[in-house]
Write a structure and sequence with these properties.
The protein has helices spanning 77-98, 130-135, 145-164, 217-220, 229-245, 252-258, 271-280, 292-302, 329-384, 393-397, 405-408, 412-437; strands spanning 17-18, 23-31, 35-42, 47-54, 60-62, 69-71, 108-114, 117-123, 127-129, 167-168, 177-180, 185-187, 194-195, 460-469, 472-480, 486-494, 500-508, 511-512, 514-521, 526-532, 535-542, 549-553, 571-574. The two termini are 24 Å apart. The longest helix is centred in the middle third of the chain and has 56 residues, at 329-384. 24% of the residues are buried. Residues 1-8, 198-203, 309-329 and 386-457 have low confidence and may be disordered. The chain folds into four domains: 1-124, Phosphorylase Kinase, domain 1, CATH 3.30.200; 132-340, Transferase(Phosphotransferase) domain 1 (Transferase(Phosphotransferase), domain 1, Orthogonal Bundle); 380-395 and 405-455, no CATH class; 460-574, Single Sheet (Histone H3 K4-specific methyltransferase SET7/9 N-terminal domain), CATH 2.20.110. The strands form five sheets. Strands 14, 15, 16, 17, 18, 19, 20, 21, 22 and 23 form a ten-stranded antiparallel sheet that branches. A six-stranded antiparallel sheet has the order 1-2-3-4-8-7, covered by helices on one side. It has a three-stranded antiparallel sheet with strand order 9-11-12. It has 581 residues and is an alpha+beta fold.
Length: 581
């Protein structure tokens, strides 16, 4: 039971006890999509431990009085049961691994079910994740190469034990490598791990979870048949890159497009460390290291411990000698300022170029609009003119035919001149009509309009026009440009998209781009805010099933930007009542 009923309903408050008073919650440490982690005390042995609780954010809720966990929607009950079993399987796997004597894998001491959910107890690590340690490093939020090298060797030890048991971690990242106060690196969180049969086949065929930036193509594409040690080794390379640079690793598609240029290492990173990261993160899995043993052999041959490297890297005689300049702090600062200045100037040039292109585009649209208006006015004037029928000489000589007051007051010569002038105007208008309307058949009478018509509107609009983009086919109603592409305010109703249902907002030459947009997913989730180049830019994303929502900015992939632990960096998630998660 809990001694404090004022805690958040999403995790247990301080003082809550488990297992008939054996464990007492001391504090909340962290929460993720599938669980909460607490600092607790084993009251029987007076020992500080860590307890992980299975709790599915957005699917389950907690009774604030009893601490019982239940599913919010009964339709999600099968999924909850399945995921809870995976959680307990994770505990059993770590328990078995921790008994093999590896000091670089978190140890599991106990696991049990209580409060309608499941828990497992681990040794408490006095330290912090590699992600936090890197972010707090001064002055450039990246770790010294010597320190990164020491962590690398320890994580390799952990992966070797894991892979020897036909197990793959599949979520190796800075947030899942804990560093204790003695500098020991420990691999944690096996929630995404997969077990294979001895013959190489996968024991389970459930979907692969992954963290963007730390997963290779075979994992992102759910290619279960091609998952192996090389998959974890890719994530190890991405983790090394983050620790060495403090930056999010490049994604596989960028590596394919740009090759080694995608990494952009700081100047002081030694060639051996660069080459190791590049080899670990090769987009093609067959070009990566295939085992931990291969990585160790390569390191032994090519990479010396960073603290023993002199000013010049000494390589074997048969290899090219590469000089590595060890920069002094003042020079590093000067170089950094120069780089920042160049980057600022580049951004300014790019901004000016975008503004120039936008001015040219607006000027072009203005001219096209004026041209359309001018043509419309000319057409309207032509259509208003009515041409009198030709007058025969006999009718002029017939005194019984009534004449116009104007004609009757003129001498005969002026009458014939006026009639001849009218005939000339009719012929001239006929020629102009032929030239204006294109190549009309010669035998036809020149176009003569007898009824005025409405002028061409300034903005062209369509209704239920068929169109398509990367999301699928859709029916479009709204404004279009001269090429019949959606341009301006409009609405798209998708017909065969697996994700999109509708979009209402601004288009720019066929691309969803502008403010005050509303986008609805097939499952009922909604986004309200601004679009940029066809993806979410900034606004509110609401999950229909749970009512939870995210408010903030989105990256170029159209998803909230996150740190090494998967937490949003430019916005926040909230529950349906507006409480920050």
């Amino acid at each position: 039971m809990s001694n404090n009923m004022n805690g958040s309903s999403s995790y247990m408050p301080v003082g809550t006890t488990l297992q008939a008073g054996k464990y007492r919650i001391e504090s909340h440490l962290a929460s993720g999509g599938f669980g909460n982690t607490y600092k607790a005390k084993n009251l029987f042995f007076d020992e500080i431990v860590a307890i992980k609780e299975f709790y599915m954010k957005g699917v389950t809720h907690r009774d604030a009085e009893t601490q019982n966990v239940s599913v919010s929607n009964s339709d999600n009950e099968p999924m909850f049961i399945e995921q809870k079993e995976k959680f307990l399987k994770e505990a059993r796997r770590i328990y078995k691994l921790s008994k093999l004597g590896c000091k670089n894998i978190v140890d599991v001491k106990d696991f049990f079910e209580e409060n309608g959910t499941a828990y497992y107890v681990m040794g408490y690590i006095e330290g912090q994740p590699l992600s936090k340690k890197t972010k707090e490093a001064k002055p450039e939020h990246r770790l010294p190469q010597r320190e990164v090298y020491e962590y690398l060797i320890q994580v390799l030890d952990a992966l070797e034990v894991v892979h020897d048991k036909n197990l793959f971690h599949l979520d190796l990242k800075p947030g899942n490598v804990m560093i204790d106060h003695e500098g020991r690196a420990m691999l944690i969180d096996f929630g995404a791990s997969k077990q294979t049969n001895p013959d190489g086949g996968e024991a389970t065929r459930t979907a692969l979870c992954y963290t963007p930036g730390y997963a290779p193509l075979e994992q992102m594409e759910q290619d279960l048949d091609n998952i192996g040690p090389w998959t974890d080794l890719y994530a190890l390379g991405a983790t090394l890159f983050f620790a060495l640079t403090g930056k999010t690793p490049p994604k596989p598609i960028k590596l394919i497009q740009e090759g080694e240029e995608a990494f952009r290492f700081p100047d002081d990173i030694v060639p051996g460390m660069r080459q190791l990261v590049v080899r670990l993160m090769m987009p093609n899995r067959t070009e990566r290291f295939q085992s931990v043993d291969e990585v160790r052999q390569w390191i032994q041959k090519n990479l010396k411990k960073p603290e023993k490297l002199p000013d010049v890297v000494e390589t074997p005689d048969d290899e090219e000698v590469t000089e590595v300049i060890v920069k002094r702090p003042d020079k590093e600062k000067k170089d950094r300022l120069e780089r920042e200045k160049r980057e600022k100037e580049k951004r300014e040039r790019e901004r000016e170029e975008r503004e120039r292109q936008e001015r040219e585009r607006q000027e072009k649209e203005k001219k096209e609009k004026e041209k359309r208006e001018r043509e419309a006015r000319e057409k309207k004037e032509r259509e208003k003119i009515k041409i009198a029928p030709p007058v025969s000489s006999e009718s002029l000589e017939n005194t019984d035919t009534p004449e116009s007051p104007v004609l009757s007051s003129m001498p005969g010569l002026k009458k014939y001149a006026l009639v001849g002038g009218a005939a000339f105007i009719a012929i001239l208008l006929g020629v102009i009509g032929l030239k204006t309307c294109g190549s009309a058949p010669e035998e036809k009478t020149p176009v003569v309009a007898t009824t005025p018509q409405a002028s061409t509107p300034e903005t062209i609009t369509v209704e239920n026009m068929k169109a398509s983009n990367q999301l699928g086919d859709y029916l479009y109603t709204g404004a279009v440009d001269a090429d019949s592409l959606p341009h301006g305010k409009g609405e798209a109703i998708f017909s065969n998209s697996p994700t999109a249902k509708s979009y209402k907002g601004t288009f720019v030459h066929g691309v969803m781009d502008g403010f005050d947009a509303e986008y609805v997913f097939q499952n009922g989730d909604t986004f309200i805010g601004s679009f940029k180049d066809g993806h979410f830019d900034e606004g509110k994303l609401t999950i229909a099933q749970t009512g939870e929502y995210y408010v903030g900015k989105f990256n170029n992939e159209g998803v909230p930007p996150t740190d090494g632990d998967g937490n949003p960096t430019e916005g926040n998630w909230y529950d349906k009542d507006g409480n920050q998660l």
